[in-house]
Amino acid sequence: MNGHVHLEESDMYESDGKLFLTEAFNVIMEEILHKGTDSEEKVCEWKDPDQLRALLDLDLREHGESHKQLLQRVRDVARYSVKTCHPRFFNQLFAGVDYHALTGRLLTETLNTSQYTYEVAPVFVLMEEEVLCKLRSLVGWSEGDGIFCPGGSMSNMYAMNVARYWAFPQVKTQGLWATPRMAIFTSQQGHYSMKKAAAFLGIGTDNVFIVQVDESGSMRPEDLEAKIVQAKSQDAVPFFVNATAGTTVQGAFDPLNRIADISERNGMWMHVDAAWGGSVLFSKKHKHLVAGIERANSVTWNPHKMLLAGLQCSVVLFRDTTQDKFYDTSLDTGDKSIQCGRKVDCLKLWLMWKAIGTHGLSERVEKAFALARYLMHLLDVVVQCCTGPFVNVCFWFIPPSLRRKENSADYQESLSKVAPVIKERMIKRGTMMVGYQPMDGHVNFFRMVVVSPQLTTKDMDFFLDEIEDLGKDL
Fold first, then answer.
1. 240, 268 in Cβ contact below 8 A?
2. Which parts of the sequence carry N6-(pyridoxal phosphate)lysine (predicted)?
């Protein structure tokens, strides 16, 4: 009868649903994983928002749609989305696809559990503990604690929260009434999540003191000391310094040993935001970039960036297990987290690590460095801007009309318009995707990020040829 819900029957859509899943999975394999990783195909079939809204037919209606229509929906989502697995997607600090990690992600989604207790997630509670232990040992800690978080900004906020509890334990029960004005220190190239965390935790963005950087983008320790003096003169208590290992634009590394010395002298908590640069710990050749990281109290690290674990995979690691006694460190992790329901983020990393080993992850990091160096050597027609020691390659493209005109009055203004025009043409052509931005008195420049192990020197050559082609008439 219409209007009656059949309580004695199971869901009649179940067999349809399983068939749909099988067919949709074929679309995913073909349209995303086969075409999406083919450099002859577009990174994105670009549409303006109004066109895209109409094409997708986003309206949600009273009655459901047919199997055939729904499969078309799956195809449309795949077709008009940016293929971050494409070899020429250079736009973010993540790119490419690792099939073992992707299998872990699919398995995670299908099992659909929450990472809070051994009762509902026995496999994952044990697995998370093992993965965190292994990551801590790479940092140089034989014990400690940690948790998977929904992204690096949250990892940084957890670190700041634990640091505040360490400095002012009464804050947990009495709140901010019981604390003095607090001071946080981070570099001008540090991630904006520090200010977000200060706002969210009630510390206040005015109490984030910005430390100057040198020309490579690294924090200047002598300015950190000056800013600490300044904070104290304003009756603020310096309690937290954020050192960055791999800044987002230049890929700069702060001098961790010098910062650790200053932190220890001033009784401050030292956090290292290594969301981007932490993966150099896998490479014997490049881990000198984070020398001193083991002296930090906490570290943020995002394996979803350089290691290709897939979004999202971010950890905050703690050197000490005694800093925070308000949770039980047994197998029920629910009390460690602000979240109650917490997504399983360890399986994708664990399965990929099992597949290629520490050695394979190390090779992946070293290949990215080698390709970035190759690209830097090619940059002779264009002017390098402010490239650091990592895999961020920052440069200006100088179109023929501006070459040898560096001294003309409107040179900088003209140069600032080049990258936005090239980017627009690039997106519409669909061949590749790379970001640009201005920074500290530098006009708009490109930031090329070399991450994906699918890349070869041919892709680096193509990248520069394509920029040249897109901008030759400017």
1. yes
2. 305
pLDDT tens digits, 103-118: 999 999 999 999 988 8
Tokens encoding 150? 């929904």
Query: What pLDDT, in 10s, does the model give residues 382-415?
Result: 666 667 899 999 999 999 899 888 888 899 999 9
**How many helices, marked H, and strands, marked E, lie in the chain?**
14, 12
| pTM, entire model | 0.94
Phi, then psi, of 394 in degrees rounded to 5: -105, 130
Residue 20 neighbours by CB distance under 10 Å: 15
| Torsional sign, CA 248, 249, 251, 253 | negative
Give the CA radius of gyration of the chain: 25
Tell me the three-class secondary structure of 403-423, residue by residue: CCCCCCCCHHHHHHCHHHHHH
Alpha-carbon gap, residue 139 to 296, rounded angstroms:
9
User: What's the order of all strands across the beta sheet hosting 89-90?
Assistant: 89-90, 433-439, 442-449, 392-396, 383-384
Instruction: Please report the DSSP string for 112-171 in residue order.
Output: ---TT-TTT-HHHHHHHHHHHHHHHHHHT-SS-EEEEESSHHHHHHHHHHHHHHHH-TTH
Report the 10 Å Cβ neighbour count for 226: 14
How many Å separate Cα 266 from the centre of its chain? 31
Identify whether the C-beta of residue 389 lies closer than 8 Å to the C-beta of residue 253. yes
